[in-house]
Specification:
CATH architecture: Clam
Number of domains: 1
Order of helices and strands: HEHHEEEEEEHEEHHEEE
Largest sheet: 12 strands, antiparallel
CATH topology: outer membrane lipoprotein receptor (LolB), chain A
Distance between the termini: 10 Å
Number of strands: 12
Shape: globular
Strand content: 35-45%
Number of helices: 6
């Protein structure tokens, strides 16, 4: 996982960091401003609108993205933030993930570059014994969480596809996200149902997540602009790893149409050695 565990050396500071293949963090980016009013209720079925988020983003093409993931366990909270771009049409993206500072306020790790492609996650500056000039490749279909939390940032494409399993959706009202008027929807999504309806690019990862999470349903809050594009989504996961870990993952989308270029590393640049825990 993006954040390998430094649990032993950070316990005295009351902080936790995650390890490859273990659950990471969480955070709700509170980018909403303005109170929900409940007025101007859209005529369309809220569940239909939410389930169509991924398809609408694919039609839009690409966008800039900010992510926040906050993990809370045993009275400890860790937050990881990311920023980059996603090509929803070609199903790939790139994020720069910033790990939290240590107890003294110093950075423990350089930002991690993540490449997101169907079925795989590439990470550079992974640490944990990986040379600085090498990449780590992880098959997301083999991860217990399908990379919904492992990478320290939920892949924005997967975050949208997860909404295909939306159920019990209610329209909350109008508000603003980053200065844009949006409509706020709330409900739960079923990971298994989302996997059945997912596009081929993320089906394997969601199928893995459907088996790996302790709960099939995931509460969410989703915000759509007047063009029907997903602007912000927050999922709240429950992950079991030596105890219950509550994870809140938020994705903010903006700058629609911004070109996104993803260049995968050459095979010789991918680390094949052992990764320290």
């Amino acid at each position: 996982m993006v954040v390998h565990q430094h649990r032993q050396r950070r316990e005295r500071a009351g902080e936790a960091v995650l390890a490859l293949g273990m659950a990471v963090t969480v955070a709700a980016m509170s980018g909403c401003g303005g109170a929900d009013t409940g007025d101007d209720r859209p005529a369309a079925d809220p569940a239909v609108i939410v389930r169509g988020a991924a398809d609408q983003l694919a039609r839009t093409g690409s966008a800039r993205a900010r992510t926040a993931m906050d993990m809370a366990t045993g009275g400890t909270r860790v937050t990881i933030r990311g920023e980059g771009g996603v090509d929803f049409k070609n199903r790939m993206g790139q994020l720069l993930v910033m790990l939290p500072a240590d107890a003294a306020g110093k950075d423990e790790h350089r930002p991690i570059t993540e490449l997101l492609v169907p079925g795989a996650l590439y990470m550079k500056n992974r640490g944990a014994g990986v040379p600085a000039d090498k990449w780590v490749r992880v098959d997301t279909t083999t991860l217990a969480d399908g990379n919904l939390v492992t990478g320290g940032a939920t892949d924005p494409l997967v975050a949208a596809e997860l909404l295909r399993g939306a159920q019990d959706v209610t329209y909350v009202g109008e508000t603003e996200v980053a200065g844009t008027k949006v409509r706020h929807y709330r409900g739960t999504t079923d990971i298994g149902q989302a996997a059945k309806r997912a596009s081929p690019a993320v089906k394997g990862a969601l199928e893995a997540a459907a088996k790996g999470f302790s709960k099939d349903t995931v509460p969410f809050d989703a915000y759509f602009d007047q063009e029907g594009r997903l602007r912000k989504v927050r999922h709240r996961f429950t992950y079991v790893n030596n105890g219950v870990i509550d994870v809140s993952s938020t994705t903010l989308l903006y700058g629609f149409g911004t070109p996104v270029t993803v260049v995968l590393p050459a095979s010789g640049d991918i680390y094949a050695g052992k990764i320290a825990e």
